[in-house]
Amino acid sequence: MQLSNILASRPSLRWDDPLLLALNILGGKQTPYRITVVDECCRVKGVISGRRILEVLLGKRGESIKTQKGIKGILREPVNLFLDEVHNIFPENVTPQTILQYIAENNIGYVFVVDQNGAFKGVVDEASILNKLKDKVFDIKVEDIMNRTIHTVLPEISLLEASTLMVNFHVRRLPVTINNTIMGIITITDILRHVLMKEKHLELLLHDVEVEDVLKEKVKEVMCSELVYVNPVDDAGEAVNKIINNDVSCLPVIVGKNSLAGIVCRVDLLVKIIKMKGIQTVLHLMR
Amino acid sequence: MLVGRRVEDYIPIVGADEVNSIFELAERVKGAKVIHVNATSYGGGVAEILKSIVPLANSIGLNAKWQVLKGNPIFFSTTKKIHNALQGDKSIKLTVDMQENYLKVNDLNAKLLDLDGDVVIIHDPQPLPLINYRRGGKWVWRCHIDTSEPNQNVWSFIKPFVEKYDALVFSRERYVPKDIYGAKIFVRYPSLDPLSEKNKPLSQTEILRILEKFEVDPDKPIIGQVARFDPWKNTLGVIDVYRKIREKIPDIQLLLIGSFAHDDPEGAEWYKKTVEYASNSQDIRILTNLEGVGDLEVNAFQRSFTVALQLSIKEGFGLTVTEALWKGVPVVATRAGGIPLQVIDGITGFLVDNLEEAVDRVILLLKRCWLTRELGRNGVEHVKRNFLVTKDLKEYLRMHIELVGK
What we know:
heterodimer, A: 287 residues, alpha/beta, CBS-domain, three-stranded mixed beta sheet, B: alpha/beta
């Protein structure tokens, strides 16, 4: 297995591109959750995630600038002001084994790969690795790897409330339930897309309006209700297949009639498979 | 003493573009008064970072200031208990007297310290209650320890202060206490200053001079751990590992380097325990600031190691690991705290689950010089790509911009 087999080219931004461009990519049709930010020589400067942009919209980031310039102004500021420095940069001669080990040890979803001059070559992330683990059986039940501690929301709450909960709980998505029966899932990407898609929301970007007006719709109007899910007794391989085939970052785990038992997301799935099966087995399965 | 290094001095290491991007960020917060408060001017990673960050911030147009809290022995005994409890020691209870003394010392310090900054950054739990004396500005609590599973009794005493801050900074996302809700949270890794006294390049002559001064034989292999003397660093375990190695490699030497910080009253007790435990072993040297071991000496000792050990039970980030890696020394370490971010098993060192594994890995490295060199080279590159002070400085600037930027 060569590194090139799992090295994915993901979109990147220049450090002086406006935050608005990051919002366009993260809320666009192709939905990466994070974007690498590079300099003029294509060296990695940092990463900007959907959560960071949502925090900016909510006034949890860029507070001082937002006070002075409003949302319209802040979205025109360079992405460099809001990115996170990265501490997981690897050279291109690194082996897939080392990357799998690093991801499992540190419970992280991605690393950046650079050439000998430091230029960005691509990322190895949870999706690019899981893509190589499609159609495999792991002899691990979903219930042994799923996360049972879940924050949920009601379908009637506003997008603003859901956004605030996601930021405060440090989660990317919230299952939408009524009496533990799952109705849908709302993600940060759904919210960013909502901000971009509705024509009236261009107001937010062109003029200064309050974010409350843009995120006043109810969760049920925006959530994804065509759910792809797994059962607790399914093999982890089934979860991998559904995540990759449907291009989603997580799956609800359902028992009985749509009763929510847990959630399984890409990073947890990958890290737990590596830890439970061992790196050599996973590498063998990836071939 | 804060040496007046300038950001431009780092161009040969990180490149001109990186330095230019620091200036660009700094432009947004030029002239901002930033006050850092911690509990000790030397010993431990926090003082290490502030020694670098504060002069660098001044060199790019900020008005940065570092102040150290003054306290009595009861205060530091209490704050060490708080530190241990926040790191998970469930047996600790704070008496009413301890709590009152903790608050009283902070009250006295509030009168002595300049707290009128645009941004006031309070490091670790010792000065935490100073938030009660806020007169203005944005206040940030920078927590350098692992607070993922705190002692709930002590945490419930601490938490009301934490909740008053405008922003909280932790070293890893998983260290953020689960019941902190709604706060502005930043996750920031500590960093290494490659030009500091502790990390700057040294000539072989200088290293030899320092080894000879402390009667360390430069012709015999040396392994060592640099760490404070406290139960979390597992210094006694390091001695056990050394004894096992010595059975196979009789001329091996062990250096245990530590320092006594103002805010660490347990240090003397654990130093004594360590000395007693090592007493019947040959070739173990336990050296501290009391014997004249300063940053330069630590630098020389780390460069003399064939293998560095870090067998901590708990760590925040483990900056001494970064330091060893930067000096081209592979590290054999436990998986505590931020160590696995730095020690990549088989690439920059070895991660171990127990002392037996540590023995095996150290012997492997002592016997195979080519492997030691290879891992050492990888370690330097890993730190250079990921953990240098310029990244930390940019993160601080972004946080300042968030809070008071233009």
